[in-house]
Amino acid sequence: MGWWSGHGGPGGSGTPGGPGVPGAAGAPVAAWQAPTDVERALYEAKAREDWPGYFDVLGSTWLYWSTPRHPLDAVGQTSFGSYWNPGTRTRCVALFTAGMLPPPVPDPVFVSRHLGSLARIWPDDEWWLAVNPGTPCEAYFPAGMAHRAVWRQHWERAWRPRHSTLRTLWTGGPLHGPVAHGLACGALMSVKNGSYWNSVAWHGTGYDDEVYLLKRWWGVTTREKWLTYLEELLRGDMVSGAWEFVLKVRDTLARASRTDTVSVAKWRDVTEHLARERLAETLASRDGPPDTSVMDEIKRLQGLIGKIMRYEARFRADGLLPEDGYVRSVLAWDHGRASGMARWGLGARFGELWETEQALLRAGRVSQASYDSWEEFSRGYVLGRCLHFDDEEFGDWYTEMLDAHRILTTDPASPWLNLPFK
To answer: Which residues form the DUF1266 domain (predicted)?
Structure first.
C-alpha cells in the first residue's frame, strides 16, 4: 500500500495511507462530461482506483488555490486556507485544476504552483490535500513529509511544458458563436502557450502571474492603461503604419490588375511615388525643418518591402502561404493580441467578465472585416509578429507560430476547422 493512497471522496472509509475509495457514495458518477482532458484523466484514474496514475496527472498540471488579494498586492504574500472535512476528520486544503476554477472575482484570487513546488511549501503536515472537492473527480490525501516526497517523484516524472498544444474547455467555454470566434482570434498564442483557447473566465497561471506578465511585456499596471491598450489593439492602432502602407500598396495594385502577381519593381516604384506625395504634404504643413529626410523614409520603406518579400518566401517554403499568395494586411497582429489582452486584463483584475466578452466580440468583428479566412488571418498575424520581434532570424518568434498554425489548420478539434470565419 503506497504513500500515494487516499480517499476518493469525503465519505470514503480509508485511512491516511490506506486504499482510495472512488466517489463519495462508493461509485463513480456516470456519464460525467469533464471540462478538460485533465479532469477526465483524474476521473478515469479514480474510477480504476489507480492512485499513482491520479498523482501522475496532478504532477503534469498547475494546481490552484484561493488566497486573499490584499496581502498579495501589498507584499506578495499568499496563504493557504484550510477547512474541516468530516469525511477525513482532518483539516484540508482545497486545490483545483484549471477546468474547475470559478469565474474570476475581485477578491479572493487564485494562484497556482506545480505539485513539486507544493510538496516544498505545504503549510502543515497534519493538513490533507483535497483535489477538486465537491466534483466527480475529487479525492483526498494525507500530506505528511513522506507523502510529499512521493508527490515530488510524480511531478518529476510527469511534468512537461504544455507548449504547442491545442487545449479546449469542453464545458465552461464557448465552442460556437461570435464570442468563440473572438477567442479563436487569439488561438495562435493559446496553442503556443498551451492554454485553453476558449477560456473567457481567464485565470491564466494565477493572478500574480497575470499581473507580472502584463507589467513585464506591456508595462500595464493600471485599469486605465489596460483599457487604452485594449482599445488601440481593437482599432489596429498598434501595428506599424509603415507595414500596413506598403502592404496596402501591393494589394491595391493586385486588385486593380485582377492578379495575385505584382512585380517587385512596380511595387517599389508606386510605394516611392505615394510616399513622396505623403511626405511632401506632411513637410509642407510644418513650420520648422523636417525630422527626417524624404530619402531616409523612402529607403526605410524599400528595406521593409525587401524584408516582407523574404518572409513571404519562407512562408511559402513552409506551407504557410500558397505559391501565388501574399499577405494583404498585418492587422491580425493587433486583433489577435486584442483577444489575448481582453482576457489577460480580467486575470489581472483590471477588468470585469462582461468587458472581456464585449472585447472578444469586437475582436471577432474587426478580424472578419479585414480577412476572408482563418489561414489569411494567421499569415497576417505571423508576419506582424515577425516584423515586430524576429528581425529575419527565423527563430522562435517565427517557428512557434508556424507550429501553432499547423496545429490549428489540421487538428480536428481546432476552432479554425469548426468555426466558419465569416
So the answer is: 214-421
CB 60 within 8 A of CB 31: no
Q: What is the pLDDT of residue 258?
A: 77
Enter the pTM of the model. Answer: 0.90
> At a CB cut-off of 8 Å and minimum separation 6, what does 205 contact?
62, 112
For 182, other C-beta atoms within 10 Å of its C-beta total 29
Residue type, 303: G
> Mind listing the pLDDT tens digit for each residue in 104-148?
999 999 999 999 999 999 999 999 999 999 999 999 999 999 999
C-alpha to C-alpha distance for 213 and 211, rounded to whole angstroms: 6
DSSP assignment string, 25-48: TSSPPTT---SSHHHHHHHHHHHT
CA 347-225-388 angle, to 5 degrees, is 85
* 8 Å CB contact between 21 and 9: yes
In the chain, % helix, strand, coil (3-state, to 5) comes to 50, 10, 40
On the 0-12 / 13-18 / 19+ scale of CB atoms within 10 A, 277 is: exposed
Q: How far apart, in Å, are the Cα atoms of 283 and each of 97, 199, 242?
A: 59, 48, 17
Question: What pLDDT, in 10s, does the model give residues 359-408?
Answer: 999 999 999 999 999 999 999 999 999 999 999 999 999 999 999 999 99
E strands present in 57-153: 63-67, 83-85, 90-95, 109-113, 128-131, 139-141
Query: Are residues 354 and 345 in contact, defined by beta-carbon separation less than 8 angstroms?
Result: no
For 303-332, give one letter per residue: b (16+ CB within 10 A) or e: ebbebbeebbeebeeeebbeeeebbbbbbb
Other Cβ atoms within 10 Å of 289 Cβ, number: 7
| End-to-end C-alpha distance for the chain, whole angstroms | 57
Q: How far apart are CA 170 and CA 298, in angstroms?
A: 51
Query: Residue 172 in 3-state DSSP?
Result: coil
What is the C-alpha to C-alpha distance for residues 156 and 133, in angstroms, rounded to an integer? 25
Reference 246, options 398, 385, 394, 383; nearest CA is: 383
CA atoms within 13 A on the CB side of 28: 17
The Cα 91–Cα 239 span in angstroms is: 53
